Amino acid sequence: METHDEAKLCFPQINTSCIKHTRPQSESMLIYVLLSFVSLLTVILNLLVIISISHFRHRQMLHTPTNLLLLSLAVSDFLVGLFVMPFQILLIEPCWFLGDLVCVLFYFFAFVTTNASVVNMVLISVDRYVAICDPLRYSTKITQRGVQICVLLCWIYSVFYSFQILSDNLKQPGRYNSCYGQCVINVIVAVDLVLCFILPVSTIVVLYLRVFVVAVSQARAMRSHITAVKLQSSVTVTVKKSELKAARTLGVVVAVFIVSYCPYYLVSLSVSELLIGSSNIFIIFLLLSNSCLNPVIYAYFYTWFRKSVKLVVTLKILQPQSCEARLL
Q1: Which of 22, 30, 58, 288 is the most buried (most CB within 10 A)?
Q2: Could you say which residues of the chain have pLDDT below 70?
Q3: CA-to-CA distance for 261 and 313, rounded, in angstroms?
Q4: Angstrom distances, CA of residue 75 to CA of 45, 47, 53
Q5: In whole angstroms, what separates CA 250 from the centre of its chain?
Q6: Contact between 133 and 216 (Cβ < 8 Å)
Q7: Where does the chain cross the membrane (predicted)?
């Protein structure tokens, strides 16, 4: 018969086993339901973006360089919601029953997908910067082929970066566990802070400030400029409004990204090496929640996305020739 102390161990038959943390059942249920809902919502929202861009092709308007970047972002965020978040929910308790190798592979996949999401946001910021600040040469600077290469390089870089940042953990899985049944990895804070937060945020903020200055100057020019061709003036105003909306959207992206990532990196600033595990699960989940908000920010406010969602939800997407539906 097990003693009281043995019953608290993750693996009662092993003396070096981790100790279970007990909490009220109602509290545990609330946490699991909340985090599971965020995970499910992340999958659904990003899947809608993927379907909207991939399935519908009216006039090829949705298959633009910008939407290709949105598709890549949606894929990375979809993988975060489908695989990373559920495994992260398992880490609410310190008892990890899937082994050290699965633990480090999970974190490797988490780093790949979240880093790809961040890089995709930087690429989208660059795309919007060129579209607003140099619209006349946008079609020559930002091409479909060039964006495809950038997306491929984004994912290659994310995989390479994850290998480097987790090299010690991959060589010897479980080396940083303090007890048996724990899932903990070690990350060099300085490298992760610079490459995954400071550089991306700095790039996005600088580009946004430039976009904001140009957008304000264009708005002033619109008010002071008088043209004899009313039709041309109307088209110009429409284009400018579209670009100003893109500028505002980019501003929301910056704010949400910083709010989601700041708590994690503020904690990491206090140490030179950070042990990631069940002790900081909620901070990490806040960071991952950025993948749930991205599709809302980038796609929900577009008319074509709202129309495509209606077609998907009502199952009209299953009808013949549904991919030719007019969304714009």
Answers
A1: 288
A2: 1-7, 22-23, 57-63, 216, 218-247, 249-250, 270-280, 299-301, 321-328
A3: 32
A4: 11, 8, 11
A5: 14
A6: no
A7: 30-56, 68-92, 104-126, 147-167, 187-213, 249-267, 279-301
3-state secondary structure of 64: coil
- In order of their start, the domains of the chain are 4-324 (1.20.1070.10)
What are the CA-CA distances from residue 307 to residues 54, 213, 304, 313 (Å)? 14, 32, 5, 10
What single-letter DSSP state applies at residue 184? -
Closest CA to 73 of 147, 162, 163, 161: 147
Cα→Cα distances 220→6, 130, 213, 215, Å: 73, 20, 11, 9
Q: Could you read off the pLDDT of 147-205 as tens digits, one per residue?
A: 999 999 999 999 999 999 998 889 888 888 888 888 888 888 788 888 888 899 899 88
Q: Which structure tokens are listed for 163?
A: 């290998």
DSSP assignment, residue 22?
P
CA distances from 239 to 50, 125, 231, 242 (A): 26, 18, 13, 5
Mean of the per-residue pLDDT values for the chain?
Answer: 79
Q: Are 257 and 208 in contact (CB under 8 A)?
A: no
pTM, full prediction:
0.83
Residues 26, 110 contacting (CB under 8 angstroms): no
Q: Where are the beta strands (DSSP E) in 230-289?
A: 273-276
